[in-house]
Amino acid sequence: MKPRLFTPGPTPVPEETLLELAKPVTYHRAPEAKAILAEVSEDLKYVFQTTNPVFTLTSSGTGGMEAAVSNTLAADEKAILCTAGRWGERWRGILKAFGANIVAVEVPYGKAVTPEMLERALSTHPDAKAVFATLSETSTGVGHDLEAFGKLVAKTPALLVVDGISGLGAMECHVDKWNIDVCVTGSQKALMMPPGLAFVSVSGKAWRKIDSTPVRNFYFDLRRARKSLAESDTPFTPGHTLIRAQRVSLKKIRAEGIENLWARHARIASACRAGVQAMGLKVFAERPNNALTVIAVPQGVDGTATLKALEKKYGYKLADGQDTLKGTIWRLSHMGYTDAFDVLGALSAIELVLLDAGFKLEPGAGVSAFQKSYAAGK
Ligand SMILES: *Cc1c(COP(=O)(O)O)cnc(C)c1O
C-alpha cells in the first residue's frame, strides 16, 4: 500500500528537500552554515511578507509560541486571548504558565472570533499589553480575519501576536501590511519540511515592549537571538541540517511566488469544499481557511473507525478531531506539497470508504464537483 499523508502537520516533503536531509552533517559555526542561515532568514521574510527579522528556533511550533509569550509579557500583565479551538487553547496554556492576566474572547469550536468581538475587548481593556490570535485554527479549519484584527490592534498600545502555524504559506497573510507584531510558524505545516523548526518575526513595536520587559527565559530569549542573527548565527546549536533542508523548500516557494501559492491553495480549497458538499457532507468551519478542509462526520457514521478504514484499505491518512471533537470531524490537509490530484484522490477514497460504511452517495459525486469547481477557478 502506498502511504499518503493528508494530516494538517506533518505534511508531505518534496524529494529534493528529503535528499538534502540525507547529506553529511557539517559544523554549525562554519561560514557555509552561517551563509545558509542568512539565506533562509531572507526567504522567510518573503514568506512572512515582512522586512523585520525572522528568527529560526530549534523547536516545534509551540516553542515559537512560548518565545512570543515569555519575551513580550511580564507576569500579571493583561493579555487578550482570541480562542476558537485547540490552538487558541495552546496560547491560553502558555499564557497561564507565564502568569498572564488573561481576558478570553472565545467562540464555540467551528466558529471564528469576529473583529467586532475583539474591538469590544480592546475598548473594555485598554490596559491590555497584547492580543493573542490564531491565523488558521487547525483543529476546526477556521481562518481568522487577521487583516481586520491588525487594523484594530494597531490603534492601541497592545501588540498583535499571531500563531500562523499551518496558516502561513497556505493562506494570504501580510505580516507588515496587516500590523502583525509577532508572527510564529513551524516547519512541518505549509513550509514543506519535517517538524523541528519554529520561525518568529518581531516588529519594531514588539521590540520596544520586549526591551522593556524583564527577562524570563533562557533558551527562548529573543534578545540573544537578535544579537546572534546580526552575525547570521544562533545562540545555541541550531538544527542546521533542518535549516539546510528548509532552504530547499523555501526556494520552491520563492520560485512559485507567494501570490501564486496563495491562489493555488485557494483554488484547491474551494474545489475540495465543493466536493465535500456534493457528497452530502458538511464543512465544519463557519469561516473556512485554505490550509485544510474539516469535514463534519455525518450522522450514523463512526468517524474514528471510518478514518482507520480509510488508512488501512486505501492508504490515506487524514486526522481525526482532537479532544472533544474526536470522532466528529475529519481533517484533510491540502497545504504545502499537495496538489489538486492528491486531493482528488483523497476525495475519491473518502467516497469509497463511506460507501463501505453504508452511507448513501453517488460514486463520483464529490470528485465531479471538485473537477467542476477546479475547472471554473483560475
Ligand atoms: C500544529 C499547530 C501548532 C503546534 O505546533 P507544534 O509544532 O506541534 O508545536 C500550533 N498552532 C497551530 C495553529 C498548529 O496548526
Task: Walk me through this protein's architecture.
The protein has 378 residues and is of the alpha/beta class. It has two domains: 4-8 and 258-376, Aspartate Aminotransferase, domain 1 (Alpha-Beta Complex); 15-256, Aspartate Aminotransferase, domain 2 (3-Layer(aba) Sandwich). Helices cover 43% and strands 16% of the residues. The strands form four sheets. A seven-stranded mixed β-sheet has the order 2-10-9-8-5-3-4, with helices on both faces. A hairpin with an 8-residue loop joins β11 (282-283) and β12 (292-296). It is globular, with a radius of gyration of 21 Å. The two termini are 33 Å apart. The structure holds pyridoxal-5'-phosphate. Pyridoxal-5'-phosphate is lined by residues 9, 60-62, 87, 90, 134, 136, 138, 163, 165-166, 186, 189, 195.
